[in-house]
Amino acid sequence: MDLLRDGPGGGHGLRAAALLRRSHPSDKELQVAGLLIAQSAEAIRPLLGERVARLVRLHAPGTPDPQDDLDVDALCRAVEAGRAGGPDAGVLEDWRPVLELVAAGAYGRTR
Q1: DSSP secondary structure letters along 51-87
Q2: Structure pTM?
Q3: What pLDDT does 72 receive?
Q4: At residue 99, what are phi and psi to the nearest 5 degrees?
């Protein structure tokens, strides 16, 4: 949580995650990727798993356009919408349960 609180990304990551929560309510990993868009994919991988790291990595500037990846497309659209502002996205601490859920799943897959 401290890494997210002090790191880059600011409010548009929160807004992107909130938009993804609405458009993809059962995809917690995609929502977390929206929250973490400005973080390092390599730092994310051991904590939250390969899929979240891959989504964050593919969203990064200069990455080839993944035209056939609907999840990356949804992430990119939510990030752009989040940058434009929008409804109140809450606070970072609201995301703790989702982060813990995704982290627990990632841990279980790597054991």
Answers
A1: HHHHHHHHHSTTS---TT-HHHHHHHHHHHHHHT--S
A2: 0.79
A3: 87
A4: -60, -45
